[in-house]
TrEMBL record:
Compartment annotation: Membrane
UniProt xrefs under InterPro entries: ABC/ECF_trnsptr_transmembrane (IPR003339)
Pfam families, A to Z: CbiQ
Native species: Ohessyouella blattaphilus
TM segment ranges: 14-32, 38-56, 68-87, 247-267
Primary location group: membrane
UniProt-recorded name of the protein: Energy-coupling factor transporter transmembrane protein EcfT
Bilayer topology: Multi-pass membrane protein
Domain of life: Bacteria
Keywords from the named record: Membrane, Transmembrane, Transmembrane helix
Length: 277
């Protein structure tokens, strides 16, 4: 398995050249804007920005293909289960009921429920590209240096850096162990029954856990031998100063968040946009 999922690959473009601190602030602002508001107009606007930034980053589809498949399945399940367990929640929120067509008993498709579920689906769809951008375009060491510079403990910053670095290593180890087990006759194909495949996957997870524990011990010993944590401060090789592009990105993210909050508070008088009144 040579997947590039969660792996950082250095590139030279406007998104990659932003500071890790800038990307964190932008990710938080855009996420809060989407999570705070249930106005589908605002969410679509943020989703469009997410797609534009994603295209600007020049990330290859092969890097995110697996993630997109999982997200699509999650969104589909979420959409179906929301209707199964709360088929009238939209009418309760908006206070009206415009029936499109009945199904059975309390399961009635209404415009209100459809708007609520589409809004909810778009909230996830607008956030995921930003998360992908943050993970795939941020150098872990530079990100740790950036958040340490604003006052976060360098121990916590270093822990975040190690976490970001660990994702691609974990996926790589899983692929290596999976290939090794399959060469020994472990079948993970669709020819096997679902229960057998799950059991075989567990046979991969067990050595993966032990290899992870070995790596943790190895890194901990290496950090102790180098005196990590002895001093209150440290210098960073990958530190990157904030430039004009960083300030533009931060201001844009704050403006988007502020506009979303103002529309909800002053125009809609609620987190929900109600076109049915």
């Amino acid at each position: 398995m040579k997947s590039k999922l969660f792996d950082y690959v250095e590139k030279d473009n406007i998104i990659y050249n932003l500071s890790g601190f800038t990307k964190l602030i932008c990710f938080v602002c855009y996420t809060f804007a989407v999570m705070f508001s249930y106005d589908i107009r605002c969410i679509i606007g943020v989703a469009v920005l997410s797609v534009i930034f994603f295209r600007m980053s020049e990330i290859k589809f092969s890097q995110v293909r697996t993630m997109i498949i999982y997200v699509f399945v999650f969104l589909l399940l979420n959409f179906v289960l929301t209707f199964l367990f709360s088929p009238t929640y939209g009418t309760e929120i908006y206070g009206t009921e415009h029936v499109i067509f009945p199904i059975l008993g309390r399961y009635v498709v209404t415009q209100e429920q459809l708007l609520y579920q589409l809004t909810k689906l778009l909230k996830y769809a607008a956030t995921v590209p930003m998360g992908m951008l943050f993970l795939l375009t941020t150098n872990p060491s530079e990100f740790a240096a950036s958040i340490n510079r604003i006052g976060i403990s360098y121990k916590g910053a270093f822990a975040l850096s190690l976490t970001l670095r660990y994702f691609p290593d974990l996926i790589r180890d899983y692929g290596d162990i999976s290939l090794a087990q399959q060469s020994r006759g472990l079948d993970l194909s669709k020819k096997e029954k679902l229960g057998t495949r799950i059991k075989n996957i567990m046979n991969i997870c067990i050595p993966l856990i032990f290899s992870t524990l070995d790596r943790i011990e190895l890194i901990s010993n290496a950090m102790d031998l180098r005196g990590f944590g002895k001093k209150k401060k440290r210098t960073w090789y990958a530190a990157k100063p904030l430039k004009a592009g960083d300030w533009v990105a931060i201001v844009l993210a704050v403006i988007v968040f502020a506009i979303t909050v103002m529309i909800s508070v002053f125009i809609n008088k609620s987190r929900f946009w109600n076109p049915f009144i």
